[in-house]
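Known limitations

Structure tokens in this collection are predictions and should be treated as such. Users comparing against experimental data should check residue numbering before alignment. To illustrate the layout, the record for 2,5-didehydrogluconate reductase DkgB is reproduced below. The input appears on top and the generated tokens appear beneath it.
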Amino acid sequence: MSIPSFGLGTFRLTGQAVIDSVKSALELGYRVIDTAQIYQNEADVGQAIAESGVKRDELFITTKIWVENYAADKLIPSLRDSLQKLRTDYVDLLLIHWPAPGNGVELPEYMAALAEAKKLGLTRQIGVSNFNIDLTRQAIEVVGKGEIATNQIELSPYLQNSKLTAFLKEQGITVTSYMTLAYGKVLKDPVLADIAAKHKATVAQVALAWALQLGYAVIPSSTKRENLASNLLARDLKLDADDMARIAKLERNGREVSPDGLAPIWD
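Generated tokens:
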């Protein structure tokens, strides 16, 4: 099993907006859909998939357990509820959404429950999201080496997370990049615009191609069909060594998301 490199994110999309986004994406050839319990759109995603006619075994569906469901007696029942909303018997990837230190449930308890969900066949693979190096190490200790498929982290040309990504690579854990466009901030970057002009590409394609070329998986979202189609073309864009070196210099620790009580101490 492995993590597909290109998928559709659904963060902040609900109702008809997410239904249309997922259906358009599936028509365009996307086969990877990323959602989460806290997005409150799993039922909409399930509806869109059902109406699309795409067979379940062609899809790769990810969801994430929310912090209030981390306790051993809550995690699996909450997942079963998610599966019902998504209209499927299993997800391909199940993540712990945030480490949430101090929320009353310790890491060994929720990681063991996550491993149990896999054992029960409710998910094909397990992973984490927003974990730093230390917490990822602790998670590996609980579930065993080779069990954590990915760490889904905020990553963009402005936040390159080199220490954490190097550690994950060392451990054989796929990096999934979310917010690769930094809430659209990178779209106005003159360096990226220059590289885009050189390749007759869009700035979004350049940022996504950069992440893909570093071996990361990406899950950009959009409500616009033309952007969904355009983003897919990033898979065919090959940046040269000079492009990659110029983008490496854009690092500014530009973190967009770090909620109190949920986020770890970042590396």
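For this record: DSSP finds ten helices and eight strands in the chain. The chain has one domain: 8-248. Please report discrepancies through the issue tracker.
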